Amino acid sequence: MKTQWLLPRTILGFASLALFRCTLVAAEPVAAAASLTPSWVPSDGANHPLGVGKGIFPGRVVWIRDLAATPWDGKTGHWWEDGTGINQAVVSAMMSKSLRTLSGAASDAASWEMLFRYHNRSCGRGDQGYVAGEKIALKINCNNAYEGYGDADNQIDASPQALFALLDQLVRVAKVPEDMISVYEATRVIPDRVFLKSHQAFPGVRFVDSKGDGKNGRFPVEYQKDTLHYSVEKPLVGKDLPKCVTEATYLVNMSLMKGHPTTGVTLTAKNHYGTVDVRDHEVYVNSHSHPMGIYHPFVDMIGSRQLGGKTLLFVLDGLYGIRDVNDNVAEHGHWEKLFHGEWLASIFMSQDPIAIDSVGLDFLRTEFPLGRFTDFEPVKNADNYLHEAALADHPPSGTVYAPDGERLKSLGVHEHWNDSTRKQYSRNLSPNGTGIELVTP
Questions:
Q1: Fewer CB atoms inside 10 A, N or C side of the chain?
Q2: All structural domains of the chain with their residue ranges
Q3: Whole-angstrom Cα distance, residue 399 to residue 215?
Q4: 0.90 exceeded by the pTM?
Q5: Distance between CA atoms of 214 and 220, rounded to whole angstroms?
Q6: pLDDT tens, 40-86?
Q7: β pairing state of 136-139 and 181-185
């Protein structure tokens, strides 16, 4: 099926170079230019919800912030080190509180039972919890582990402590057998600083990455061909998915809170660019260069039964939220506008993929509207995919989104907060609101 908005063949012809060109842009210094005053304002304004909220409490996004989780002085060692960089006990407590607040349950165990049951009811699998033998794929983000398994810089990747806390919940509390869980990063490696902590505690959990060989503690990525489908003829995004995903009953999407030079933001939707085998950074997802109301492949990913359709839980690791994907945390991880120069020190959690990315976008667009640039706004129109996904049954682009052959319904609820001080969404403002509810435990 075709979208109503198409790009010239000359542009499409260069799309195969998108990832390479994006990498070059990220590595080159920014040319001197006059400082640009941020001007982008979301087209829908504040508190105008689109779509239908998902979750036990529809549209709920839990945000927990605790500075005790991030004691790093920004100078000594690395942000990801135990104790001096991140406090494991505090992060584990944050994960626990987030789960209970998301579900409304009194205990962590009851929370997982409710999450599994809600998900299975939503998928037409009946009112049942986790069943022995069901597999879970856990997608993390290690996009900056360029130095391989020994990577040890201060760029942003999945925090070892957030991964440990989530695995501890799945294994110890939800009672999912270790060998039923696969932690994966299909297009990058999972470096030792992320891998070792969790592997030592949960040796049965499988780790899958781009250089795994079965002998280094990680297993190789095996792709299943042509399993992800798109709603346009040439989406320029990969169709092959890792078997650890296609064989899983459930998926947990644990992404990062960071800006990006072409997509504006990297949140839970873009996290699956570490799942697919081919990525487009220049054509459909180059937000600032294109208008609103165009086709977006993220919608097909969120709506696919193999990806978003399997996702039990969406998590944003914002312990050290960052200005730009390639920034050094020590230099550009301080949140001056929103938190007086402190670390973000936050975890976000939701059952609604559109709501959580909408909240993440509001945080990032407010704090880092220009990213690392001075001559354009990379965050401009970054909410196009959120509009398209929230209104997937009648999107602004007119695209018939049907990755599995049946036209998608709304994939969640999108809106922007009233302002950066109060951070209120429509369900915060009124018990009869139909949009997002941002909740702090």
A1: N
A2: 42-439
A3: 45
A4: yes
A5: 7
A6: 999 999 999 999 999 999 999 999 999 999 999 999 999 999 999 99
A7: parallel
